[in-house]
Amino acid sequence: MQKVPESTTGEHETLRRSLEDLLKLMLIVWCKENNAIKLVSGKPNETDKTIKIQRQSGEFGFRIHGSRPVVISAIEPDTPAESSGLEVGDIVLSINDINVLDRSHSEVVKIAQAEGEPLKLEVARTAGVLSPISADVHGGEPLYSGYLWKLGGYASGTPSNKWVRRWFALKADNCLYYYKTDSVSNKIDKQPVGAMMPLNYEIQKVDDESSGCPSRAFRFDLKRSGVPTLHLAADSEQAAIRWLEVLIQAAEKLQMADTWLERTRRNLILAPNALQKPDCFGYLVKVGDEWRSWSRRYCVLKDACLYFYQDVNAKNAFGVACLHGYRVLSSIEEDKNAFEIVPADPSQKHFYFSTESDMDKKRWVTALENSIHRWLKVD
């Protein structure tokens, strides 16, 4: 192995330190700029958080790193720091209203030790600022969200006796995500602590006295055979009722989708004449990418799904295109009898077809538009 010259190694180390100093300077400028904006506007910045930590026994449960600014570098599990909502990467702006942005590491430690309890930290949250992620990650924008109490031990399958407060968000994918705090609602990137899809779950209100779990008012459970039960509780009767409504609705939507997928799977193994009440059927010429290949296939349209067969006498379909959310364009310059089916998401497949006549083209275009539109209305 070739030895790296000492001069090169030294240059790399100097560059690394220079970049670290530059990043620290940028963080300080960013924090001070946000503070100035807050003072002028009179409104808190969405990246600023005030966190109170009450030490019950032992340590607070967090570690700091660096100087000017000091950054939260680690949070111990099952400690006051974890339950407070403090996050790794938070820049400490003040401790009990004492500005520590320009203080050294040792000075910050002394201030924290001298101030006692509770410890009030004002922090600037860097998660999502240094590496932002778009809102559609993890299911997109929430349909309904809020704080709920969750009985610990769900992930391990061994319920504990401790209720923890978590931010829950039911999203457009009908999946229930939960986070340590609600900073996700302020567009600040956060990874969910966990997620579950309520398909085939029994969702019901629970009588607290007969549940066999640690007492908590306004409780409801999500139960399914063979998997751990998710025990939740709201802060009020009204909130519990609303959560039950949206979760049951999400479960019903998932059940509809699951039923539809099963029906589509069954249709694939049927002969073309065995599909009941098709929306349209007949031969189509499927155009390959960039108009280089053409293949004549027998097709059956049903519930916005286009099933492909080798010919009319085939015993089963060799493929299916699910066209929900697609739109039909009837004009293609290369072929007056051709049309295309375009997805809303450009990453999905684009379909080109050609018919034997203009009349046949109109028949297929009308049937496709009606089938897709009818499915969207039902959904």
UniProtKB/TrEMBL annotation:
A Pfam entry, by short name: PH
SMART domains (alphabetical): PDZ, PH
InterPro entries noted in UniProt: PDZ (IPR001478), PDZ_sf (IPR036034), PH-like_dom_sf (IPR011993), PH_domain (IPR001849)
Residue ranges occupied by any PDZ domain in the UniProt entry: 50-127
All copies of domain PH, residue ranges: 141-252, 277-373
Matches recorded under SUPFAM superfamilies: PDZ domain-like, PH domain-like
Domain of life of the organism encoding this protein: Eukaryota
Listed CDD domains: PDZ_canonical (cd00136)
Protein name (database record): Uncharacterized protein
Organism, scientific name: Ignelater luminosus
